[in-house]
Specification:
30% of the residues lie in helices and 21% in strands. It is an alpha/beta fold. It has 2 domains: 205 residues, Rossmann fold, CATH 3.40.50.300; 70 residues, no CATH class. The strands form 2 sheets. A 6-stranded mixed beta sheet has the order 6-7-8-3-9-10, sandwiched between helices. Strands 2-1-4-5 form a 4-stranded antiparallel beta sheet, with helices on one face. This is ABC transporter ATP-binding protein. InterPro entries: AAA+_ATPase, ABC_transporter-like_ATP-bd, ABC_transporter-like_CS, ABC_transporter_ATP-bind, P-loop_NTPase. Belongs to the ABC transporter superfamily. GO terms for molecular function: ATP binding. Keywords: ATP-binding, Cell membrane, Membrane, Nucleotide-binding, Transport.
Length: 284
């Protein structure tokens, strides 16, 4: 049996965070009094409808937004701005079209002052991990969408971030490519043990990937329930038809769409900290 590697990831804590956007009379609250934590090496999914503030929270964890109230920390230290320790992957890749795949992956190391030969060696190793060893000297335009996202993930992971923040990174891919990318992510996560906070509105994706799913309600977003995901790892696509998986999916549907299940609680009747499993205990 392969030994489980020591978690490389850091501990993310969100303590009673509220985030507001806009100015003057147009200012509005996107997230309200959100508390959660992601433990070192854990994979947590934020699941919710469009507009509930999932991506906004991820932007704050990346250091691009400051909360109106509350506190965000990594390993107990306040998050005050962007940092390579918190890598961010978007739905659409941000690769430089004029750079080769290898140079794109090595770019962050170049900004750190890593010598050319060393950074190219590390970039080549990361490309091998994502299955793109033969494409180091291609350009992004020569790759499929799934391959471009592999490069994007490699470019973030080459910096060995303590936290990987993923904002619907597979949302633009076709179903088969998306499934393969989910399995690749789980393989990389099992190897590197980086803490992952993954944003999605796809229930299957959240339950397939996560250790825990945190369900957010409509704007202003707040956590309405925490769902531990009990399925053994490694996970494969066949899990999606498992009766226990289907039952958990039904619960998610009830939370996101109160009309999807008989007797399901309406979101506006749930307390800000949820129902069956209180989320408050995850605040730091």
């Amino acid at each position: 049996m392969t030994a489980v590697p020591t978690p490389h990831g850091g501990r993310i804590a969100v303590e009673r965070v509220s985030i507001e956007l806009g100015t003057g009379a147009g200012r509005f609250e996107v997230l309200h009094d959100v508390s959660l934590a992601a433990e070192p090496g854990e994979l947590v999914c934020l699941l919710g409808p469009s507009g509930c503030g999932k991506s906004t929270l991820l932007g704050a964890l990346a250091g691009h937004l400051q909360p109106a109230r509350g506190r965000l920390t990594l390993d107990g230290q306040p998050i005050a701005g962007p940092d390579p320790q918190r890598g961010l992957v978007f739905q659409q890749h941000t690769l430089f079209p004029w750079k080769t795949v290898l140079d794109n992956v090595a770019y962050g190391l170049k900004m750190k002052g890593v010598p050319r030969m060393q950074r190219q060696e590390q970039a080549a190793e990361m490309l091998a991990l994502v299955g793109l060893s033969g494409f180091a000297h291609r350009y992004p335009r020569e790759l499929s969408g799934g391959m471009q996202q592999r490069v994007e993930i490699a470019r973030v992971l080459v910096n060995r971030p303590r936290v990987l923040l993923m904002d619907e990174p597979f949302g633009a891919l076709d179903a088969l490519t998306r499934s393969r990318m989910q399995e690749l992510l789980l393989e990389l996560w099992a190897l590197l043990r980086t803490t992952v906070v993954f944003v999605t509105h796809d229930i299957d994706e959240a339950l397939f990937l996560a250790d825990r799913v945190l369900v957010l309600g409509p704007r202003p977003g707040r956590i309405v329930e925490e769902l531990p995901v009990p399925f053994e790892r490694p996970r494969h696509a066949s899990l999606l038809t498992d009766p226990a998986f289907v039952a958990l999916k039904r619960r998610c549907l009830e939370l996101l769409r109160p009309d999807a299940g008989a007797g399901a609680p309406a979101l506006d009747r749930l307390s800000p900290l949820g129902a069956a499993r209180p989320v408050a205990r995850y605040a730091a």
